[in-house]
Amino acid sequence: VARKNDRIIYIQSTYILIDESTITREYAPLEAIDDHYEKYVVSLDEVELPSRNGIRHIQAWRLDEIL
Asked: Which pLDDT score is estimated for 41?
């Protein structure tokens, strides 16, 4: 959880999202949170994956764009 002033975001980090089981494992903790704060999965994948249940994927080197 990252907090700055009144802004709260959830961040799950992983090395790479190599297959569907890894994607499911990494997104599941954020999907279990029942609130409306921003949620992100951060990885070193070369491509940015589409949003999944409102959870955005972002590449690690772009993390400063959301903070």
From this structure: 98
